[in-house]
Amino acid sequence: MQVSSLNEVKIYSLSAGRSLPEWLSDRKKRALQKKDVDIRRRIELIQDFEMPTISTKIKVSRDGQYIMAVGTYKPRVRCYDTYQLSQKFERCLDSEVVTFEILSDDYSKIVFLQCGRFVEFHSQHGHYYKTRIPKFGRDFSYHYPSCDLYFVGASSEVYRLNLEQGRFLNSLQTDASESNVCDINPVHFLFAMGTAEGKVECWDPRTRKRVGLLDCALSSVTADTEIDGLPSISALKFDGALNMAVGTSTGQVLLYDLRSSNPLIVKDHHYGLPIKSIQFQHQLDLIISADSRIIKMWNKDTGKIFTSMEPEHDINDVCLYPNSGMLMTANEDPKMNIYYIPVLGPAPKWCSFLDNLTEELEENPESTVYDDYKFVTRKDLENLGLAHLIGSSLLRAYMHGFFMDIRLYHKAKLMANPFAYEEYRREKIRQKIEETRAQRVQLKKLPKVNKELALKLIEEEGEEQQVTKKRKQKNLPSLLKDDRFKVMFENPDFQVDEQSEEFRLLNPLVSKISEKRKRKLKLLEELEAQEQEEEEEPEGKASDAESSESSDDEKGWVEEVRKQRKLLRQEEKVKRQERFKEDQQTLLKPQFFEIKEGEEFRSFKDSAKKQKLMKKTLGDRLKLEEKLGTLDVSDTTVGSKQATFRLKKSEQQRKQQEAEKQHRQERKILRRSASHLKSKRGRGRLFR
């Protein structure tokens, strides 16, 4: 049994471990269990809980005693009795099952929708009746008050089959070209169907008229989502009388209140895969949505992730055992997975021993799935010199990095930095010594890091205390005593760099104030040295270093800024001269480049630019052209994008435009000079 944890939610995988083949004899199975520890420790909750190749759908009967699953190959249905923890029966079918429904409380009435347009009915003894619908079906729902089956599929019609009369009724004519899923509300029996156009149509079975239409495709597209095409509806589920969850083919889940056309919340799986299943967990107000890669549990009010699971194989269906924390999945694998999550609820009564087992495991915690692995990024791999292992079986890609064996990580780290442990040990010893020193009775001393900043804060606190005493106000907490800013005066990484350009320009008067503080620091250091030599407490001395401040603060500030700028320019000149000398010393070697046939050589810059552009992706090239103004991208009303290109001008056109521009400027200058001469002549005549 494997244990994994995400967001402090423990997930127990009950189907983990190797399974034994059916054709082995009991004697050989016992021998293998004695030899192999993994086989001995595995938990086989339900015997032979698997399919020959893959499983497609899994459901639980309303009384909770039977679990039914369909799969291939050959197409078959298997029924498992939870009270006996074993398989009750297996029936083979003529074609693959698209979906099925258990109409009774137990397994006595089952309906199968098959690939070849067939609808097959099974009773307790086996096959009962078989009929056919006009078009290929994709989903169906059972309307209990009228005993009608509603079939949706590759047609604009919804076919109705009455099980009491045993005949087809008039079908419902919809506006959709095709329908993918459907569901009936368990409270007021409203029939809803999801279309290929991304809409949900709601029908009243009593009047057989459409009462509502939701455009989920438009609502699923938000500012953060990226879609390739028009989203279609791939999953649909009612919750109570008013709530409905809709899953799209692009990986979004929308939660609706039936009284509003806008979704309450839109949750994106960020995988771009169709949503396969949606379940509601009422105890914790969770929604369990699954695509073929991941199962996500999130709060239906806030959308916050509760936990998630990523099985090894693609998921086809998810089934939540009612009123418990057990979850079952049908996968693209012979074995059907069973998960137990104690936070969601207790174990079912037929396997109540799981609660005791998990409690014992929590009391004696063992290593979880990821305890033997280390998560590393690409940068970490480059620092360790293991970048060449990317793509091999030693690294497993996960999110923005990789998982690697912890033993390999420790070996590589030891080889990359053999003295890392010694440095870590010295640092820990130093921290322990500092902690013991802090417990002693000490004088008020300045910290080792950012001494000038600490001195400034002490001075400001003294001034504030005097003001608050006069005004009879409460003292504000000190930054030096605050634990949130403790690291700023302990860690050398937080040391203020006074030689940086930003500090020198933004703090021009710091130099004058810092001179006073430096004098105080020197006095304090001398006092500390005397303490260490004499081992006695020195008496405080009044410092005569303080001088009267000049009244011309503004002039001093301007002069200081000018000085700092001059110094920065001089430093830049020195750096340029050093670079120039280095460039002169370096010897350039001639390089030869081969030009392809049919191309003309213009300059090295053009070829370099072309090579860079060719290496970039189409998206980067479009962004670059959009910045240059040669491309205009705009959104259309349908949801697609429209791109408008402008051709680049040739060199002759550019030269011609520049010549015309220069000609216009010359003509303007001539006109201005002519008007100026005329005005001068007119004034001369008046004076005469």
Automatic annotation (TrEMBL):
<dbReference type="InterPro" id="IPR012580">
    <property type="entry name" value="NUC153"/>
</dbReference>
<keyword id="KW-0677">Repeat</keyword>
<dbReference type="GO" id="GO:0000462">
    <property type="term" value="P:maturation of SSU-rRNA from tricistronic rRNA transcript (SSU-rRNA, 5.8S rRNA, LSU-rRNA)"/>
</dbReference>
<protein>
    <recommendedName>
        <fullName>Nucleolar protein 10</fullName>
    </recommendedName>
</protein>
<dbReference type="InterPro" id="IPR040382">
    <property type="entry name" value="NOL10/Enp2"/>
</dbReference>
<feature type="region of interest" description="Disordered">
    <location>
        <begin position="639"/>
        <end position="688"/>
    </location>
</feature>
<dbReference type="InterPro" id="IPR056551">
    <property type="entry name" value="Beta-prop_NOL10_N"/>
</dbReference>
<feature type="domain" description="NUC153">
    <location>
        <begin position="482"/>
        <end position="508"/>
    </location>
</feature>
<feature type="domain" description="Nucleolar protein 10-like N-terminal">
    <location>
        <begin position="1"/>
        <end position="364"/>
    </location>
</feature>
<feature type="region of interest" description="Disordered">
    <location>
        <begin position="528"/>
        <end position="557"/>
    </location>
</feature>
<dbReference type="Pfam" id="PF23097">
    <property type="entry name" value="NOL10_2nd"/>
</dbReference>
<feature type="compositionally biased region" description="Acidic residues">
    <location>
        <begin position="528"/>
        <end position="538"/>
    </location>
</feature>
<dbReference type="InterPro" id="IPR036322">
    <property type="entry name" value="WD40_repeat_dom_sf"/>
</dbReference>
<dbReference type="GO" id="GO:0032040">
    <property type="term" value="C:small-subunit processome"/>
</dbReference>
<comment type="similarity">
    <text>Belongs to the WD repeat NOL10/ENP2 family.</text>
</comment>
<dbReference type="InterPro" id="IPR056550">
    <property type="entry name" value="NOL10_2nd"/>
</dbReference>
<dbReference type="InterPro" id="IPR001680">
    <property type="entry name" value="WD40_rpt"/>
</dbReference>
<feature type="compositionally biased region" description="Basic and acidic residues">
    <location>
        <begin position="648"/>
        <end position="663"/>
    </location>
</feature>
<dbReference type="InterPro" id="IPR015943">
    <property type="entry name" value="WD40/YVTN_repeat-like_dom_sf"/>
</dbReference>
<feature type="domain" description="Nucleolar protein 10-like second">
    <location>
        <begin position="369"/>
        <end position="417"/>
    </location>
</feature>
<keyword id="KW-0853">WD repeat</keyword>
<dbReference type="Pfam" id="PF08159">
    <property type="entry name" value="NUC153"/>
</dbReference>
<feature type="compositionally biased region" description="Basic residues">
    <location>
        <begin position="664"/>
        <end position="688"/>
    </location>
</feature>
<dbReference type="GO" id="GO:0030686">
    <property type="term" value="C:90S preribosome"/>
</dbReference>
<keyword id="KW-0539">Nucleus</keyword>
<keyword id="KW-0175">Coiled coil</keyword>
<dbReference type="Pfam" id="PF23098">
    <property type="entry name" value="Beta-prop_NOL10_N"/>
</dbReference>
